[in-house]
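TASK: fixed-backbone design
INPUT:
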């Protein structure tokens, strides 16, 4: 009798929670904040990002450019330098809860930011030319698929940095 009574209450509790979930107000739709103008960046204090051995560029994030907005997007400037010393940079955002990245602007050869015409959220583990966003997310920007705050993001990225090649 005790077992059947316990089962009965379990079924009732489950039914009540399903009914409550169906009547709960919907969660507000996520809205991205308008990103700020790409920030100035420096290359002398970059936090190195460990990349797979087959990647021939050094990747680093300027900690002074890292922000975590109220929309929970981690924005930063990433700098990539190849073996000959040529470098490029991008202003990007990581949406940790969905594992997506968006490139807002690229630093052009003329020394100016060039806005991406129609930036789109793309999977960080998708078929992109570079895997740096995935590495940045997993090495501290998106700890357990969550963005924390600026200071914690910087601390985690520095904690996981490697010795430059």
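OUTPUT:
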């Amino acid at each position: 009798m005790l077992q059947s009574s316990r089962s009965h209450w379990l079924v009732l509790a489950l039914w009540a929670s399903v009914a409550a979930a169906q009547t709960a107000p919907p969660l507000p739709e996520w809205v991205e904040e308008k990103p700020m103008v790409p920030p100035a960046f420096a290359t002398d204090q970059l936090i190195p990002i460990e990349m797979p051995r087959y990647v021939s560029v050094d990747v680093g994030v300027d900690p002074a450019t890292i922000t975590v907005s109220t929309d929970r997007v981690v924005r930063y400037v990433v700098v990539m330098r190849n073996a000959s010393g040529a470098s490029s940079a991008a202003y990007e955002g990581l949406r940790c809860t969905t594992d997506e990245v968006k490139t807002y602007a690229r630093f052009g050869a003329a020394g100016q930011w060039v806005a991406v015409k129609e930036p789109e959220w793309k999977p960080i583990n998708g078929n992109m030319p570079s895997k740096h966003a995935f590495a940045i997310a997993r090495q501290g920007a998106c700890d357990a698929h969550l963005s924390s705050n600026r200071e914690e993001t910087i601390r985690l990225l520095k904690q996981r940095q490697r010795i430059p090649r």
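COMMENT: The first strand starts at residue 47 and ends at 49.
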